[in-house]
Amino acid sequence: MNKIENPSENIEKPAGRGTSQSLLPYFGKDFLASVVVFIVALPLCMGIAIASGVDPAKGILTGVVGGLVVSALGGSQLQVSGPAAGLAVLMLELIREHGIEKMGVIILLAGLIQILAGLCRFAPWFRAVPPAVIHGMLSGIGLLILAAQFHVMVDDTPKGSGINNLLSIPMAIYKGLNWTAAQNGDSTHHIAAAIGVLTILILALWQRFAVGRMKVLPGSLVAVVVATSVAYFLHLTVHYVTIPSNIFAAIDPPKPAVLVSIFNWEIFFDALAIAFIAAAETLLTCSALDKMHTGQRTNYDRELIGQGIGNTICGLIGGLPLTGVMVRSGVNVNAGARTRASAFMHGLWILIFVALFPKVLELIPTSALAALLVFTGYKMINWKIFKEIKQYGRSEAAIYVTTIILIVCVDLLTGVIAGVLLSIGKLLYIFSRLDIKITEHEGRNRTDVSLKGAATFLSLPRLAEAIESVKPTTELHVHLEDVEYIDHACLDTMMGWDKQHRAQGGTLVMDWGTLGTVFRERRGGNRELATLEFRPVHADEVASEQK
Predict the structure, then answer these.
(1) Which residues contact 219 (CB under 8 A, 6 or more apart)?
(2) Which residue among 33, 342, 453, 499 is least enclosed by CB atoms within 10 Å?
(3) What's the mean pLDDT in 444-471?
(4) Angstrom distance (rounded) from CA 196 to CA 191
(5) CA separation (Å) from 32 to 66, 339, 343?
(6) pLDDT in tens, 357-408
């Protein structure tokens, strides 16, 4: 999710955390913001549905639920929920695997998992996903969306897997440029491609050159309106969006015979994947939004419960999974929204427009919506983030790249899990790495032991072996200035060895200042002891200091 610029900073703080703001004083601002968000959300709802392999009406139903339900029950004042591009890839895979009839059950179960997680106060843990994995997931999803929708943009069919879609992009380009076939009447790919390119050009140019009050109009709206107008007035032969005349006819609850699959372990793990990814995207969006305004902070557990209720409803009506979406939420804040009424009204406008003017939506070329998602996918990749991640070390960059590769070549869940496991592995490596250097001084009856890294129970066998190799009656100096962390297990070992060593006539000398810094920084104790000079210290003193 790309950072939204120029955030609004005029949102007033409520009297206290967890209290609700009055809606009436800000109705005018919320009303205007809701119209802007509605204009942005409607084409995205349809485009994401097409990218997921389902009817656009299902994406619209999800947008309505996100607006009318989640905005009222969630823990964020300004977040806008609906179908997300990040889940389109996963939905496409699941539909291919299980069929569309089981999607309602999977989404229903995902919603129940989110509700349970929120009730158990698990929401803050979703924010603990490593940044390299999050950015890798977003970039991988963006690449998959770009690759799949590139084919739709030329009125062609995606090739199945992500890697096949990516590798077959040159063929899609060839079809879009094959004017010879077009002149013979054998193809209309070039017309759809022209509509798609026009849409992307308008999106890019509008972002860069729109000035003054023109910026109020979203680039996505301008691009889709222009592309639709061109296709309509020129009577172009391309694929168009299909919407049922009655939006409520799109409601397709899971059949009783299918509901029993909720007890299938494979279905459960697929639902868990949707719940996890949707929760991570939602709560990361909440965290970003809280930095964009000075109003009421997000209640993460309540927001997760609200999202779970929304997904439960989407599963029951046959919609798509929903999440908090950064693009719509950022537009909501920048448009001047002050309360949750804005997100609620945007869902209301979607419902009213689709119910009264369904034929208008059928004038939109499918290639225009696909081009909108191609552009969205390109922005999600965020090419500059790799340099930023690389600054934190090659290991972080490797985790980022690995996550992307596995998402594209295997599947979304495998990529995310692999990224998390690699991050855990890196952490274990850091906390198990302890360099031990032993220096013996001939003729001085002295031995120096220099420690570098993390002295934890994982490195305890090597540390014990090193200090136990010291000869009796030796004066042992332990240097801790390069120790990043030391745990109780290592200290206990050194204390036990010190008692034994002193009994044999030896001496243990440690840098008390460094040891004090390590402990007091971690325990919040007296920092003044960290300034003590280098002097011999016995185990009894260390033990008393821990207390």
Answers:
(1) 202, 203, 206, 207, 210
(2) 499
(3) 84
(4) 9
(5) 19, 12, 11
(6) 888 888 989 899 888 888 888 887 878 888 888 888 888 999 999 999 998 8
